[in-house]
């Protein structure tokens, strides 16, 4: 399969695109006592993957698909608006755009392309992370499913690492949680790419998954009130 | 200094932008005090911006704002997700974003100071983020610290040894520190300061002024940068 090495680069936590400073709600969950150890964390990650993970995977796949055929700024703005509509919390939207902006700036130097230039011009404040991820994936040579897989994977690996840092958890135990989630990560990527043919394009965007996660929304908003926060989100 | 060794700094697009100065060093050595002192000394003659990388949110940024040495809007705080060294060395995306945000909002600027979070002796700035860097030690950490070396002590463009007023109280021998630092720094300068007594850190400010002058001589006067410009290829 083409794009495998590019996929590894894109999904690597060492990709210098600012992801290390985001906890995906874990820091606030820890502050509120909702995540105290590996048991809580396992449930948190499973829930995050089934909601935010699936939604961002579908958006990333759609962006990757779009990047393969289209460079019209208007379509990028529309897809970005679809991502906006699927994030209820303003704090979460802001964090997603920050991550998207940073990923885009890094991707433009790694895999320069007209598509990424168009996306940067279309959404100057920074596209949503999933949209930037899909476009970056396409520019790197990844297929939509690979972009979706990356989105699903990073939706749980970032928070897991944050929990290790915040709670001093055994990193091997936490990685075991991720290993156990591997089938679910692949399942989310498959579900994200389930729409056949034309439905994968702009006419089918309205039907992209929109699973909400009210707890994650509340955690994202609560995080802003934490005067001692270590992570951006 | 500088003239006898190759300039290895490979920051993208050096032409027509501010000199980016990193200030790093261990916790409590006086990094924020030095930033405040430089703002005091250089504010009247140079157009400044400051980026802080706090352990906790905006501690250092708030200190600088209260000190009243610079327009508070010209200070941006970056969160580092428990890993201050990552944000200045391995994944500099958020810091670059902050630097460029300041340049877009207030540019052209002559000097952007990036203060690292307090870290250890191995933490240095990426050349992709800082054009020049200062490493700050203090005498109360012990007069053996320069001998221990580490990339900060050995490779920073300027080593500052602060809190010399405390030397008699902590039994630190400044001649030993000076001799040991010289032995590992290959001719690069070392300055001894007591910012408590010299609120403008004038010797350091003079060095920075010299660096800014040399930078502009080589790369031209800073001019305004438009948002979202294409990165250097």
UniProtKB/TrEMBL annotation, chain B:
<keyword id="KW-0342">GTP-binding</keyword>
<feature type="domain" description="CobW/HypB/UreG nucleotide-binding">
    <location>
        <begin position="21"/>
        <end position="191"/>
    </location>
</feature>
<dbReference type="GO" id="GO:0016151">
    <property type="term" value="F:nickel cation binding"/>
</dbReference>
<keyword id="KW-0996">Nickel insertion</keyword>
<dbReference type="GO" id="GO:0005525">
    <property type="term" value="F:GTP binding"/>
</dbReference>
<dbReference type="InterPro" id="IPR027417">
    <property type="entry name" value="P-loop_NTPase"/>
</dbReference>
<keyword id="KW-0963">Cytoplasm</keyword>
<keyword id="KW-0547">Nucleotide-binding</keyword>
<dbReference type="InterPro" id="IPR003495">
    <property type="entry name" value="CobW/HypB/UreG_nucleotide-bd"/>
</dbReference>
<dbReference type="InterPro" id="IPR004400">
    <property type="entry name" value="UreG"/>
</dbReference>
<comment type="similarity">
    <text>Belongs to the SIMIBI class G3E GTPase family. UreG subfamily.</text>
</comment>
<dbReference type="Pfam" id="PF02492">
    <property type="entry name" value="cobW"/>
</dbReference>
<keyword id="KW-0143">Chaperone</keyword>
<dbReference type="GO" id="GO:0043419">
    <property type="term" value="P:urea catabolic process"/>
</dbReference>
<dbReference type="GO" id="GO:0003924">
    <property type="term" value="F:GTPase activity"/>
</dbReference>
<protein>
    <recommendedName>
        <fullName>Urease accessory protein UreG</fullName>
    </recommendedName>
</protein>
<dbReference type="GO" id="GO:0005737">
    <property type="term" value="C:cytoplasm"/>
</dbReference>
<comment type="function">
    <text>Facilitates the functional incorporation of the urease nickel metallocenter. This process requires GTP hydrolysis, probably effectuated by UreG.</text>
</comment>
<comment type="subunit">
    <text>Homodimer. UreD, UreF and UreG form a complex that acts as a GTP-hydrolysis-dependent molecular chaperone, activating the urease apoprotein by helping to assemble the nickel containing metallocenter of UreC. The UreE protein probably delivers the nickel.</text>
</comment>
<feature type="binding site">
    <location>
        <begin position="25"/>
        <end position="32"/>
    </location>
    <ligand>
        <name>GTP</name>
    </ligand>
</feature>
